[in-house]
């Protein structure tokens, strides 16, 4: 069906996005109509439907295969070390740009009164809108008492734990039966990847409605008041992307321009849906098909990176903590900056499995003990987040790909052939 | 056998006293109704300035009817005591120079239901002074954002509250965070030795503060501006004031919410009621408040009454 291919072309995708933005600006009544919002929601729900089985099945199958191949220990150590280094680096970058850019110093009167109006709305309910979940709850809640409940409530951390346990134990059982199960799990992954890929045919239309309703909901007052913070976070996102490009280029020799071509679909999905998980299947495909990385290690490291390493939150938290100290004239010493770097990493890990907006509340876990008053600023960040989110999500996806490239094994020729063969079988 | 035996003489004596009192009071009220100028308090009343609805109009002395409902209806006017200082949105001078506000509207509606004309006596310079006006009979009733307190209840009766103001805390966010305490228990947090809580001198909030935060130090400030300045600068952990004053300040300067957190205290209210002497008038007013379902809220009042310029 060559006519349908037009829908996956760059002009069609950008046409949908730009059309959506224009509709949001010039026809806000249409863009804010509940039906328009529901249509966008429909598309995102379809992506979420496909992603959950992909995460569970690919973690189980690829971990088992890594165990079969006998390099599980080395591989997992390398994964954890890479994740931690990347998280700390992002956090340090956030603290650095906030310390240099000073977004919270000398707020203008206009900006202050815009913030004030946001805060007045919040005191009517006398609730600062904070999520109360402690780090303990996060860690102690990792093990699900009922794995099906974890799946049905999309409790990511519990699903990861269950899938890893399943994969590790499966990897210790050698034999034809376990091979069959691994193949079945891989098939499940492929089915949903294919379904998501088909859904991308409707991406231009989905972008039209999603971008229209998002644009119409933006408050320009807030954009103006928080301009410096927004600009800094976009600078941070850009630096992360450039760094990731360099890492990928050095490691596997793919030029930045070619990288952008390969990751185009993933980055557009990330920018528009503001969800790294929705972009994951296309990242998986790009990594194994285009970057020629080992399919099993890619299917293990990318879901783990996407679920556990929320670089976008780490960056936002690091910048926000420094921002708070500037707003309240709290001076920071060198040790304070180091503590903030680590605190931002810790808080971002605590948001695992939470949607972005809810996750912001987790910053109070570290801000309050550090003596940085967070409750008022949390409302400002919540109001600004829809503007920041697309940019930092793109950076997040790019860095996920880069950590994937660092950790994953290079593909062997026969595995590529096998992958091509199975995909041909599935196409037929 | 009674523990307190009452002799026949005592009973007869008491009956005579009661009879005398009844006759005297009916005589007195009769005299009042027919010849008000011969009343013993008329010389004092003549000096009482009473304003009409125009706040800037010449103050014409209008004598009250001593608060008795029958006398008020007979006289065709209800003299309402209102303190001389403005308290937006309860009573204030609006852009047109007229006396306006929720208490004024309430008084006018009460007068309408009684079939009389409302006039306002703004001679009292303090809230206690309004209660005294009512107690002396110089105002028939007092509607002046009056808090019901035990000392005031010694002088007059009060109706059921027509609005209950919450007591509010305004807390400095930096100091609050530095205290590293459970944010859900703000009272426990503030009620500790060494903590400073501010209140305006001469308001009931100094007493409320000592009552709610016995362990803390209550720091007094001369006026609202000094009080709110102190919490913004972090000189005190928080300040205690009524819902109306705090919300007005915040609605006017919302950006201060970056520095301060506002919390209304759930179990500490300030009941506002009408001061009255005549039991029949009190009964009538309670019935009025109940049948008309008068229950106001600060948020509604601040929305309904346009804030006068420059206030």
How does this structure look, described?
The complex is a heterodimer of chains A (428) and B (311). Chain A has a single domain (2-427), classed as Proton glutamate symport protein, CATH 1.10.3860.10. Chain A is 80% helix and 0% strand. Chain A has 22 helices and no strands. The two termini of chain A are 14 Å apart. The relative contact order of chain A is 0.16. The model of chain A is unreliable at 124-131 (pLDDT under 50). Chain B has two domains: 41-156 and 277-304, Periplasmic binding protein-like II (D-Maltodextrin-Binding Protein, domain 2); 165-270, D-Maltodextrin-Binding Protein, domain 2. Chain B has helices spanning 8-34, 42-46, 69-75, 102-114, 127-136, 150-153, 173-178, 186-190, 204-212, 224-233, 243-252, 279-291, 298-304; strands at 77-81, 92-93, 99-100, 117-121, 141-147, 157-158, 163-172, 196-200, 217-221, 238-242, 260-276. In chain B, the strands form two sheets. In chain B, strands 1, 4, 5, 6, 7, 8, 9, 10 and 11 form a nine-stranded mixed beta sheet that branches. A two-stranded antiparallel sheet of chain B has the order 2-3. The relative contact order of chain B is 0.14. Chain B contains 13 helices and eleven strands. Chains A and B meet through helix 6 of A and helix 7 and strand 11 of B.
Task: Give the topology.
The complex is a heterodimer of chains A (428) and B (311).
Chain A: H1 2-5, H2 10-26, H3 28-31, H4 34-69, H5 72-101, H6 109-124, H7 135-140, H8 147-152, H9 156-172, H10 176-199, H11 203-217, H12 220-225, H13 227-252, H14 256-273, H15 276-290, H16 295-308, H17 311-327, H18 334-350, H19 356-359, H20 364-367, H21 375-407, H22 413-427
Helix pairs in contact in A: 2-11, 4-9, 4-10, 4-11, 4-15, 4-16, 5-13, 5-17, 5-18, 5-21, 6-21, 13-17, 13-21, 14-15, 14-21, 15-16, 15-21, 16-21, 17-18, 17-21
Chain B: H1 8-34, H2 42-46, H3 69-75, E1 77-81, E2 92-93, E3 99-100, H4 102-114, E4 117-121, H5 127-136, E5 141-147, H6 150-153, E6 157-158, E7 163-172, H7 173-178, H8 186-190, E8 196-200, H9 204-212, E9 217-221, H10 224-233, E10 238-242, H11 243-252, E11 260-276, H12 279-291, H13 298-304
Parallel strand pairs in B: 1-4, 1-5, 8-9, 8-10
Antiparallel strand pairs in B: 2-3, 5-11, 6-11, 7-10, 7-11
């Amino acid at each position: 069906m060559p006519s349908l291919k037009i829908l996956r072309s760059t002009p069609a995708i950008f046409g949908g996005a730009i059309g959506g933005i224009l509709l949001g600006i010039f026809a806000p009544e249409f863009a804010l109509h509940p039906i328009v919002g529901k249509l966008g929601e429909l598309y995102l729900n379809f992506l979420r439907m496909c992603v959950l089985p992909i995460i569970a099945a690919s973690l189980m199958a690829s971990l088992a295969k890594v165990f079969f191949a006998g390099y599980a220990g080395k591989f997992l150590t390398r994964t954890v070390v890479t994740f931690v280094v990347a998280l700390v680096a992002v956090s340090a970058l956030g603290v650095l740009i906030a310390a240099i850019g000073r977004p919270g110093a000398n707020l203008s009167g206009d900006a202050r009164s815009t913030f004030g109006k946001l805060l007045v709305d919040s005191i009517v309910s006398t609730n600062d809108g904070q999520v109360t979940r402690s780090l303990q709850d996060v860690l102690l809640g990792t093990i699900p008492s009922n794995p099906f409940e974890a799946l049905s409530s999309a409790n990511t951390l519990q699903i990861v734990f269950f899938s890893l346990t399943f994969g590790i134990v499966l990897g210790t059982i050698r034999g034809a039966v376990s091979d069959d199960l691994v193949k079945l799990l891989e098939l499940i992954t492929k089915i949903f990847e294919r379904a998501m890929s088909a859904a991308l045919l409707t991406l231009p239309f989905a972008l039209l409605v999603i971008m229209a309703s998002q644009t119409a909901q933006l408050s320009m007052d807030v954009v103006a008041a928080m301009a410096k913070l927004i600009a800094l976070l976009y600078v941070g996102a850009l630096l992360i992307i450039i760094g990731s490009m360099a890492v990928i280029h050095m490691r596997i020799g793919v030029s930045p321009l070619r990288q952008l071509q390969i990751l185009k679909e993933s980055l557009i999905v990330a920018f528009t849906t503001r969800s790294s998980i929705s972009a994951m299947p296309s990242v998986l495909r790009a990594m194994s098909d285009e970057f020629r990385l080992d399919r099993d290690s890619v299917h293990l490291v990318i879901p783990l990176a996407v679920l556990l390493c929320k670089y976008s939150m780490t960056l936002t938290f690091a910048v926000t903590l420094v921002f708070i100290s500037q707003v309240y004239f709290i001076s920071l010493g060198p040790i304070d900056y180091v503590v903030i770097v680590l605190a931002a990493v810790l808080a971002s890990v605590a948001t695992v499995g939470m949607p972005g907006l809810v996750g912001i509340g987790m910053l109070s876990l570290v801000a309050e003990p550090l003596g940085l008053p967070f409750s008022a600023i949390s409302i400002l960040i919540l109001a600004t987040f829809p503007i920041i989110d697309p940019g930092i999500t793109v950076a997040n996806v790019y860095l996920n790909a880069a950590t994937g490239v660092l950790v994953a094994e290079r593909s062997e020729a026969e595995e590529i052939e096998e992958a091509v063969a199975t995909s041909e079988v599935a196409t037929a | 056998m009674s523990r307190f035996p009452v002799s026949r003489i005592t009973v007869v004596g008491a009956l005579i006293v009661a009879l005398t009192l009844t006759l005297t009071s009916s005589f007195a009220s009769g005299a009042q109704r027919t010849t008000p100028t011969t009343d013993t308090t008329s010389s004092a009343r003549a000096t009482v300035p009473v304003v009409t609805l125009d706040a800037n109009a010449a103050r014409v002395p209008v004598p009250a009817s001593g608060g008795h409902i029958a006398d008020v209806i007979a006289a065709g006017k209800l003299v309402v005591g209102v303190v001389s200082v403005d308290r937006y949105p309860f009573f204030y001078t609006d852009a047109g120079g007229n006396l306006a506000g929720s208490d004024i509207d309430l008084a006018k509606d009460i007068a309408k239901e009684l079939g009389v004309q409302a006039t306002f006596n703004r001679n009292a310079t303090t809230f206690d002074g309004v209660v005294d006006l009512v107690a002396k009979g110089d105002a028939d009733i007092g509607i002046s954002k009056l808090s019901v307190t035990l000392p005031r209840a010694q002088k007059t009766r009060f109706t059921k509250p027509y609005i209950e103001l919450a007591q509010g805390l305004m807390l400095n966010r930096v100091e609050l965070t530095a205290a590293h305490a459970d944010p859900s228990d703000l009272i426990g947090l503030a009620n500790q030795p060494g903590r400073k809580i501010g209140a305006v001198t001469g308001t009931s909030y100094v007493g409320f503060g000592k009552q709610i935060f016995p362990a803390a130090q209550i720091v007094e400030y001369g006026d609202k501006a000094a009080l709110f300045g102190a919490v913004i600068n972090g000189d005190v952990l928080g300040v205690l004031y009524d819902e109306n004053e705090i919300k007005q300040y915040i609605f006017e300067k919302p950006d201060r919410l970056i520095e301060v957190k506002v919390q209304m205290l759930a179990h500490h209210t300030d009941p506002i009621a009408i001061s009255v002497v005549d039991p029949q008038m009190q009964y009538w007013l309670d019935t009025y408040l109940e049948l008309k379902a008068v229950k106001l809220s600060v948020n509604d009042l601040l929305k309904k009454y346009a804030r006068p310029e420059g206030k």
